[in-house]
Amino acid sequence: VLNYFEQRCQTSKRMAEQAKHVIPGGVQHNLAFNYPFPLAVTQVSGAHMTDADGNRYIDFLQAGGPTLLGSNYPDVRAKVHALLEECGPVTGLLHEYEIKLAELVCDAMPGVDMLRMMGSGTEAVMGAIRLARAYTGKKRVIKIGGGYHGWSDQMVYGMRLPNTGRMEAIGIPRGATATTQESLPNDLAAIRRKLQWNRLRGGTAAIIVEPFGPESGTRPVTKDFNAQLRRLCDEFDALLIFDEVVTGFRAGMGGAQAYFGVTPDLTILGKCLTGGYPMAGAIGGKREIMMMLVGGIGTTAKRAFVGGTLTANPLSCAAGYFALQEIQRTDAAAKAGRAGDRLRQGLEQIIERLGLPYVAYNMGSIVHLQTSGVMLLDTSNLLKLVRLKNEARQRKHMMEEMGAAYAAHGLITLAGSRIYTSLADTDAVIDDALNRFEDV
Ligand code: PMP
After folding, report:
1. Nearest to 56 by CA among 343, 431, 429
2. Is the CB of 122 under 6 A from ligand 1?
3. Given a cut of 90, is residue 170 above it in pLDDT?
4. Does residue 125 sit in the same domain as residue 167?
5. DSSP E strands: which ranges in 84-222?
6. Are residues 148 and 255 both part of a single domain?
7. Do 140 and 253 have their domain in common?
8. Residues with catalytic annotation?
9. End-to-end alpha-carbon separation of the chain, Å?
10. Ligand 1 pocket: which of 143, 148, 273, 310 to mutate (most atoms within 8 A of CB)
11. Which parts of the chain are coiled coil (predicted)?
12. Segments forming the whole domain that contains residue 412
């Protein structure tokens, strides 16, 4: 595998070295795939990407999820070009595409009466939590099981679970996470105990959850978990926040909330919302709660403050509007989902045929291929925590090696364990991919 990178990826290697002088670690994003060094990409289209040395790959990273139509979708690109010709990327005032995108999302998502654009999923989470606290007058927030909700101080809490084996707590004062609590997925009794405990200690403003389970379903939740959370939130007067950054539009136009038939009070959107274009983030929610964002000059209404220089930009909104229209028109979520099913079935057959200790599963276009064992989730005593740390370290290393091996066989994945399919994944692409997976 390393020979491949040495022999076939010299330009990427040189660029990665050059980048290290001016970019910490040589990468602007730490999630995807950087071992043994990040590949420099020159061209992406549909289901494929090409690196700076001319090597071609099947692109199952899909930029980390946002390009459900496939990369660099021509029709959306042309419309974004046209908009740029007319008014450029930003005005700071109002543009019709801001309204059009908001109307489209409000129509599609049961829990979204109003929408406010933000700069990223991280920002949208921060804003939603502030809104929840402002609306309920309570302070604590329960997040579910090491889920990723962006990198804000309060949400980095518990991030040791996914890969590092340590708390990502450097640079974060203890006070910043003092009101964040974490509960394992599916453990409703523990969540109830926290809600009860919180009653006398500032109350619970919200429970925030990725509705398919933490880390895009890396740890899946049971079928009725979300409905149970809804009931608990109602019982304890807390808001239910769905982080639909990944599931938003991959689970269908109505998101995971339509899929599960559970309506959250607030919804976080990102990724697919702008079809892969920048500034992918928004808070959506019930009108009464969202109206807490209004106020200020000339009113006496209480106001939860959020802002952003580039949040009101026509470029992201036009890109999102046209991408979502196209997702709707082409039934992209269902089709990418069928490609995900086909890929997962094929992977299962390979796993069985070769007798590998791996697990493949999918929720539509979000496919997981776990080659490094199942994460131990029980952190209830020190011994288990030490084991968890070791396992997490091994798991991270294994994922990196698998990611590199896939790439050497022409497959780009997310962190060697996750695959996003898209509308561009024809049967031929999936069959080609399965042959490559089998080789690996
Ligand atoms: N929530 C979830 C569920 C995510 O997957 C992500 C990003 N992977 C975020 C929030 C943060 O979004 P962003 O990277 O746009 O800040």
Report:
1. 429
2. yes
3. no
4. yes
5. 114-117, 140-144, 180-183, 204-209
6. yes
7. yes
8. 148, 243, 271
9. 10
10. 148
11. none
12. 2-60+331-439
Residue 68 inside a domain? The answer is no
Mean pLDDT of the chain: 91
Which of 245, 246, 277, 366 has the most ligand 1 atoms within 8 A of CB, as the residue to mutate?
Answer: 245
CA distance 270 to 275: 9
pTM of the model: 0.94
Residue 240 lies in a domain: yes
340 and 409 co-located in one domain: yes
pLDDT at 162: 41
The answer to whether the CB of 293 is under 6 A from ligand 1 is no
Nearest CA to ligand 1 atom 13: 121
- CATH number of the domain encompassing residue 429: 3.90.1150.10
Query: Coil, strand or helix: which one is 284?
Result: strand
What tokens appear for 356 in the block?
Answer: 């590998």
pLDDT above 90 covers what percent of the chain?
78
For residue range 359-403, list pLDDT tens digits in order: 999 999 999 998 876 554 554 555 555 666 667 667 778 888 999
CATH number for the domain including 108? 3.40.640.10
CA distances from 45 to 15, 50, 52, 56, 275 (A): 22, 9, 15, 11, 14
| Residues 133 and 264 grouped into a single domain | yes
| 261 belongs to a structural domain | yes
Considering the domain architecture, whether residues 308 and 401 belong to the same structural domain is answered as no
How does pLDDT run across 38-93, given as a tens digit for each residue? 999 999 999 999 999 999 999 999 999 999 999 999 999 999 999 999 999 999 99
Ligand 1 contact, 425 CB (< 6 A): no
Q: Is 144 in the pocket of ligand 1 (CB under 6 A)?
A: no
Q: Is 246 in the pocket of ligand 1 (CB under 6 A)?
A: yes
